[in-house]
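Posted in: Structural Biology > Protein-Ligand Complexes

Title: Requesting predicted complex, iron/sulfur cluster in pocket

I'd be grateful if someone could produce the 3D structure tokens for the following input. Sequence and ligand are given below.
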Amino acid sequence: MEIKTKKFKRDLLNWYKNNKRDYSWRETNDPWKILLLETISQQTQLDRADTYFKLFIKEFPNPETMASSSLKKVLILWSGLGYNNRAKRLYESSKILCETGFDELYPNFEVLPGVGPYTNNAILSFAYHKKVITRDVNVDRVFSRYFGVDEVKTFIHNNKKTLLDRVSSRDLNQAIMDFGSMVCKSKNPLCSSCVLENNCKKYIVKIKRPQEAFSGSNRELRGDLLKLLLSNNKLSLKKIEKALAVDREKLLKATTTLEKDGLITIKKNNLVEINS
Ligand code: SF4
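-- Reply #1 --
Done. Output follows.
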């Protein structure tokens, strides 16, 4: 396995040299930029995430500028990205980071709201040059197919030394990410032109459960509702029903989850207000 792992690394990094995607944050060591980018890019294509990242970093170049702003301002800038909880958690993280900086939290950034193992490792690898693999679905898919393994976490743990030996973890992680989204794609991987094909096990591709259809979903309604409240501050349930042409049952489902997430408050008189 050691020889195959070395070959994987060599072929992949050679591919990356010529096919690397250029983004403004690719070379940064700033953990705040990495946290921003990783939060924005969850469930969002990198090209689109890059556009939002530039807007955010201009407005909030450090945690202090975001923490001294309002949640409402962060949500306005976030408009169009969906999954508004991520914006709220980012805002909460900025407040924590004003009290306790990244260096003090190192290496446990998971204490920040919304930061899981992936983002934790991304900050460790890209800001602190730690020898770690950032695992997400794209990365797991590449390992699973190429090495023919089901348990990617165990595989990486057992082969970590060979994988990360004499290589920048930033380069390796970014190479796997780019390769996973450009070549070894979830659907229709480009196997016939793939530089890893000779040694790839092409393991059985697991079919993931399709995501909830967006159109007409509770997620879409929550997004529309938040947009409406951002321009009105507060509205009665009746007015919202009318404005969004939605029935009360669906609306209550959306308002309940948004309230639970701390984004809005439903007052006793059925007035719905955005939290600031
Ligand atoms: S040959 Fe196909 S499945 Fe294997 S790594 Fe390349 S693109 Fe992925």
